[in-house]
Amino acid sequence: MNKAARILLTGATGNIGSELSKMLSANFSNVSALYRKAKIEFNDFEWIKFDISKDSPDLLNDCLNRTDIVIHNAGSLKIGINNEEINELQLVNIDFTKNLLIKMAKYNVGKIMFTSTLSSIKKPLPSLITEDSDLEPVTFYSNSKYKGEELIKEFSIKYGIRYNIIRVSSPIANRVDAMANNVIKKWIQEGMKGKSIKVFDTGERTQDFVHVSDIANAFLCCIKNPEISGIFNIASGNTISMIDLAKLISSKFGVNYELVKKDENENDRWNVSIDKATQQLLFKPEYTSTGAIEKLLNTIEK
């Protein structure tokens, strides 16, 4: 691994980004990191205050002119429920990605690593989700990530930029306040208030949850294999059902759980194959889905 590689990290302070920052700080000596509001106190970083939705990409010219690898982790997580959110997804997830690639081509940056999503997988889900599974984005968010992937592949063909597209399963953060507004955060917040946890349908739907430290390690595996281009599923490689998740969280807080209305996704089974990442990148997650959630729950005092 070339520890002298010059790296630019976008989205350096969020859920995944803060763990990426920690990993890069421990392994590399020449890292530039973009932040919008508050930076993390890694003194060995070159912190660049930059708002992707507003600032001109020209402000990154000097940085990109001395960069070997871009880790493009920044992105809007908005779903796209109104025009404001749709516009943000276009500006941040699509337009900036294209402008960044244009700059990379201009300054001969050799590789990009891109945080994408498994939510674009076409339903009904296949029995095993691989990198070759059919895609059919149904939300503005998943579509924006899909378009980002397509731009990267286009620039790779045209300019020879190598890439690793990292399709992440459901991330588990180190702290509840850093979690996205998903079912785990909602149930934990309800449990902390002593409220009953409401499970849709029979709770048989399964999900693969992956800890942010394992995601960061996947990027490190990519850096260790600079010549490898491609798409990689990054997940824990195992699942937990919603009913077992509810039992885990309700037990932590001593509350009840109950089955309520129907779940239109009841038959979803997120069986994600990580064989490609394991074989080509030597990626090996430390935490199972259950282990990642238990690690998060252990940070909470009753």
Task: Describe this structure as you would to a colleague.
The chain has 302 residues and is an alpha/beta fold. The chain is globular, with a radius of gyration of 19 Å. It contains nine helices and 13 strands. The relative contact order is 0.13. The chain has two domains: 190 residues, NAD(P)-binding Rossmann-like Domain (Rossmann fold, 3-Layer(aba) Sandwich); 77 residues, UDP-galactose 4-epimerase, domain 1 (Alpha-Beta Complex), CATH 3.90.25.
User: Which CATH class of the largest domain is shown?
Assistant: Alpha Beta
Describe the biggest sheet? 7 strands, parallel
Uncertain ranges: none
Order of helices and strands: EHEEHEHEHEEHEEEHEEHEHH
In percent, how helical is the residue content?
25-40%
Average predicted local confidence, pLDDT: 94
> Can you tell me the overall shape?
globular
Any idea of the CATH topology of the largest domain? Rossmann fold
Return Rg in Å: 19 Å
Features:
single chain; alpha/beta; Rossmann fold; UDP-galactose 4-epimerase, domain 1; 13 strands; 18% strand; globular
Compact summary:
The chain is of the alpha/beta class and 302 residues long. It has helices at residues 15-27, 61-64, 83-106, 140-159, 183-192, 212-224, 242-253, 275-281, 289-297, and strands spanning 7-10, 31-35, 45-49, 69-72, 111-117, 162-168, 170-172, 197-199, 206-207, 209-211, 230-234, 240-241, 257-259. The strands form four sheets. It has a seven-stranded parallel sheet with strand order 3-2-1-4-5-6-11, with helices on both faces. It has a two-stranded parallel sheet with strand order 7-10.
